Amino acid sequence: MKPEYDPDGYRRDGPDFTGEPLHAKLTETWRDGPGLLGWIRSVDHKSIGRRYLVTALVFLALGGVLAALMRLQLSGAEREIIGPDRYNQIFTMHGTTMMFLFAVPVMDAMAIYLVPLMIGTRNTAFPRLNAFSYWMYLAGGLLLWIAFVLNVGPDAGWFSYVPLAGPEFSPGKRIDVWAQMVTFTEVAALAVAVSLTATILKKRAPGMTLARMPLFVWSILVVSLMVIFSMPSVATASGLLLSDRLVGTQFYNSYEFGDSLLWQHLFWFFGHPEVYIIFLPAAGFVSEIVQAFTGRRTFGYTAIVLALIATGLLAFGLWVHHMFATGLPRLGYAFYTAASMAVSIPTGIQIFCWLATIWTGRPRFMVPLLWVVGFVVTFVIGGLSGVMLASVPIDLQVHDTYFVVAHFHYVLIGGAVFPLLGAITYWFPKFTGRMMSERLGKVGFWLSFLSFHATFFPMHIMGIEGMPRRIYTYPAGMGWETLNLISSLGAVVFATSVGIFVVNMLLSLRKGERAPDNPWNASGLEWATSSPPPPYNFAHLPIVQDHTPMWNDERPVAYGLRVEDREMLISTVIEAVPDVREPSPNPTAWPLIAAAASTVLFVASMFTPWAVVIGAVPVAAALIAWFWPKDMNHEGEPVIE
Amino acid sequence: MSSRCPVSLLFLLPLTLVACHRETRDYESDALLSNDRPVAFGANAYHLAQGQRLYAWMNCAGCHAHGGGGMGPPLRDDEWRYGGSMEQMVATILDGRPHGMPAFRDKITEDQAWQLATFVRAMSGRARQDMLAGRADEPANVEPLTLDSRKPVRRVTPKQDDATEE
Amino acid sequence: MKRAFAISAVFALGGCGGIQSAAGRDGMEGSLIGGLFEVFLWTTAAVYLFVLAYLAIALVRGRRHRREAAGLQGQPPPDADRKWRTGLIVFTGATALILAGLTIATWLTDRALAKAEQDSPVEIEVIGHQWWWEVRYDDPIPSRMVRTANELHLPVGRNARITLKSNDVIHSLWVPNLAGKQDLIPGRIADLVLHPERTGVFRAQCAEFCGLQHAKMALDVTVESEADFGRWKAAQLRPPPVPTGGGALAGYSLFQSRQCSSCHAIAGTPASGMVAPDLSHVASRRTIAAGTLPTTHANLAAWIDDPQAVKPGNNMPEVPLTEAELGAVTAYLETLK
Question: What's residue B9's pLDDT?
Fold first, then answer.
């Protein structure tokens, strides 16, 4: 027998089976099938991550178009370009698209693609669940946007307060569409969160203890746990809303001992952690970019990890700060003021550490680091306006005004989108094998940065000067015209700058300079394989001995995974000691079929409660087919040292 | 701005017509200008909701309760003394009827009468399911309209002119 | 710095203090909050400048390192980070102290606000409707209760306690010149206390999204001397006289016999509809349609003729009136001072 065959007759990788023959064999085992059918049946995390990213960027563009329409309408007083009904739909769709269909999915996209590469494994822990989550996300997004085009788009705000969104004051199916879209995206996010948590805890390369994990992976671990605890709250809220609207339950009817405030509590219990779910992965991006572009390990690893965990925990204790004007007891409010202030301490710690890294490192001012600098300058303003909002008396003046609009765009665009654009630039070579244009990137960055401030800084003042939110027009003579005009002009330039970024991506896909394995000379495991990675990620599993594996001269590897079937290594949770070898699923269409069946169930249940009963049958069938045990002669095997 | 139904989505056209019309917030009551007012009003969720509001504002419940009747006949059943079609209900509301139904002709506008008729028709389960609201924000007084069964119109007293039945 | 200039330029363009501005500080609550805001503003500005300085120095120092030590990579020697660790602890401590200070400042402001609600206030009840404000001035003697709409008159220097209720969805009453806002939530009763310190005219607006015409749900606030307030209230208590002739009398008849009286009320006449704004003294208000149009003959006529053109989606129908009838009704309404 050849040396690469083990006693049971399975081929495994090893010092004798390496290089080109191994590559060919592994590719055959791990690649997707050909054509459209192969793409549909894919369970490869890279393919799923790519489609998540593209879809999320499409929704970003759509949401941006809506924003442009809003700024057009508000560029002058008493404009009549858009009527109240359409404007209410537009701002609702803008918020809903950005929060549910862009911000969380794009972070999921980056995580799904990068986490297995960063921890040195071949796929996520639950690949079919990942595929299912993408189809659910796509279905939810299509439901919302097709409905919008058909004039059934929601119009009660992205937060959909009752009683306005209730059965009496929102006739028709618009709010039902919104509520069911929430169900879709919540299922998708939960699926990804479960998959990533299991991946991060159990699939790390040998030697990558929890204390040696990249900081981005830490942020995704914290975020995934936050998703698991917060998403059910909004799913409950929207489920109760659907029930009130469709079958006449009284959850939100104060005349029958329900309560409109119940909605607000349930929604914001999710809504506040949601914004940290969006921000913490971006903080992870910043840690990674700063490490790569200063040439030293990010300062304060332990402090940053603790800060991530602290933010994740504290985030659950803040939600009432969205409800300071509702008349709840003042003593209770004081607690939320203190907690809301306290949550900025961990974030401040992270910023201190990042800046210390730059100070003591050797920064290269390439585009990703520029985005990080832009992030610091912008996000800190947003954080400080957040500190103002945490104070109840101040909040009672500026709540529901453009001051809040300014605050959250500063923290969401400055704190999440800027790092995201830097991260896309940074990992673009890994995703596509080509470099993005440095010159176009710099132009895009400066244009974005300056126009962002022109668009959103005036809004702080507009809010203090009395301009409320969610208004389709405002009277002349209030003193708001000039500020609104500046903001609208800035928005035009900002939209253009985002367009430049997209153009950069598209041009670079075709004509960008070809990228080597590690074009930035960065330190993480994802740079240990080719750009883009082969379907199997790593030919041999890397062994990790410190925080910066790629900055060592030695690159030890582990041998012994099967080559003709899909097999992955499971390691222990804290010390990442190799434990068991487990089979990994082959491509399959059952996740898509299950998602299609679930889509039918959810969409039909907007119209009749019977759909839940009848629709459960195809869903059950699809799930049974999906989980049907495969052939049993490929069980998990313990690792033999 | 008029309803946005892009031509490019021709394959969704049937859905388009249904969804667009149900959801249009027809606050200028363009439905009055339509050739088929019963559909223009009756298939529009906004008009149904306005009818529900007007039912409370005009104190219809003072005689009809919440459809169960009192001094006035019930509106949730299948018996219609003066006809149960939309046009007949509008005539009832605007011109009044013998035995106590007041004439609302100069008290509400014509489109408001049509809105009320839309709502009254929904009370006997004859509105399309996807337009109905499960309940109103008020003390619960009726079974949810969405769970109600359809009660076809039954003329109780014979009348000279031909009435259209639904 | 370029940005500081930009910021002050934006402030100048924006104009500080108008009739609907939190910068106005025309009430006690507004002043206290404005003072607290200033504390926050200066503190956060200082923190921001510190962060910017830290960033700038980091960039400069980092660039110098790069030039000095090209080609090396990896982590710096272990001792180099020790003083940074100390720096981190100091920074975290300082942040916590600053935030604690801001929290205490908040608490002190809250206490001052709470303490102020003691003396005999003007009792007002505001009920939010889609998309107008019903305003009642309570009085122990029922015949001295005033019912009006879309306006608030307040005596300067005296507390006004406003009880907030909603008839349909969640609204929020916000008089930025005087105080913070409070939500009107159906099924709940809330309080808002105003203590105006300066006379003047102000504008309040609904600050919780409430549907199609949330944007045009405003309220005129007039703060006046005690004497003027008394005069206003007395005028409100007098039912308007029925016109004796001309267009106004024709308009009066039309009002009573047509759709208007189904929804609106005018004191001293049979019109007693409760679901729409009380029109007894509509001509004495600065604006109509909840702050949408100034009260002029042309605007009144335009509003009555086609409410959906002025405020699309609001609940007032288009009543079919001929030119002559419209003129008559408008003339009648103009007599309701």
Answer: 41
Q: Which chains touch A (3 or more CB pairs under 8 A)?
A: B, C
Domain termination site, one of C237, C256, C271: C237
Q: Contact B108/C315, CB-based, under 8 Å?
A: no
Cβ-Cβ contacts under 8 Å, C208 against chain A: 161, 325, 400
pLDDT tens digits along C192-212: 999 999 999 999 999 999 999
Is residue A477 left, alpha or beta, with left meaning phi > 0 and alpha meaning psi from -120 to 50?
left
B142 exposure class (CB count in 10 Å sphere: 0-12, 13-18, 19+): middle
Q: How many domains does chain C have?
A: 3
CA distance A585 to A131: 12
Question: What residues of chain B have any CB closer than 8 angstroms to a CB in chain C?
Answer: 25, 27-29, 50, 53, 57-58, 106-112, 137
pLDDT digits (tens, 9 = 90+) for A39-92: 999 999 999 999 999 999 999 999 999 999 999 999 999 999 999 999 999 999
**Contact check, Cβ <8 Å, A254/C188:** yes
Q: Give the Cα separation of A545 and A206 in Å (integer).
A: 9
Q: Do B130 and A166 touch (CB under 8 A)?
A: no
Rounded Cα gap, residues A520 and A436, in angstroms: 12
Q: Is A387 close to C96, i.e. CB distance below 8 A?
A: no
Asked, for residue B130, whether it belongs to a domain, the answer is yes
To the nearest whole Å, the CA of C217 is away from the closest chain B CA by: 18
Q: Is residue B42 part of a domain?
A: yes
At C140, list the tokens: 């122990």
Residues C286 and C307 in one domain: yes
Are residues C130 and C227 part of one domain?
yes
**Amino acid of residue C13:** L
User: CB-based contact (8 Å) between C325 and chain B?
Assistant: no
Question: Are C48 and A471 an interchain contact pair (Cβ–Cβ within 8 Å)?
Answer: no
More confident residue, B15 or B81: B81
By the CB < 8 Å criterion, does C114 face chain A? yes
B16 contacts on A by Cβ (under 8 Å): 150
Residue ending a domain, among C89, C116, C143, is C116
C196 touches chain A (CB under 8 A): no
Residue B98 domain boundaries: 27-165
Q: Which residues pair with C163 in a beta bridge?
A: C125, C191
pLDDT grade for C78, boundaries at 50, 70 and 90: low
Query: Which region among A14-18, A220-224, A277-281, A528-532 has the lowest average model confidence (pLDDT)?
Result: A14-18
Q: Per the omega criterion (within 30 degrees of 0), is the bond before B73 cis?
A: no
User: Which domain CATH number covers B113?
Assistant: 1.10.760.10
* C231 falls within a domain: yes
Tokens of B125: 């389960």
In a domain, B2, yes or no: no
| Burial zone of C237 (CB within 10 Å; 0-12 exposed, 13-18 middle, 19+ buried) | middle
The ipTM of this complex is: 0.94
pLDDT of residue C113: 87
> Does C106 sit within 8 Å of A169, measured CB to CB?
no
Domain CATH code at residue C154: 2.60.40.420
CA distance A107 to A112: 9
Dist. CA A177–CA A164, nearest whole Å: 15
The model's pLDDT over C85-94, given as tens digits with 9 standing for 90+, comes to: 999 999 999 9
The answer to whether A349 contacts C88, with C-beta atoms less than 8 Å apart, is yes
User: Residue C275 is part of which domain span?
Assistant: 246-334
The predicted structure's pLDDT at residue B95: 96
The predicted structure's pLDDT at residue A172: 94
A with C: how many residue pairs have Cβ under 8 Å apart? 278
Say if residue C275 is in the same domain as residue C311: yes
User: Are C78 and C92 members of one domain?
Assistant: yes
The count of domains in chain B is 1
Query: Same domain, yes or no, for C225 and C159?
Result: yes
Contact between A127 and A42 under an 8 Å Cβ cutoff? The reply is no
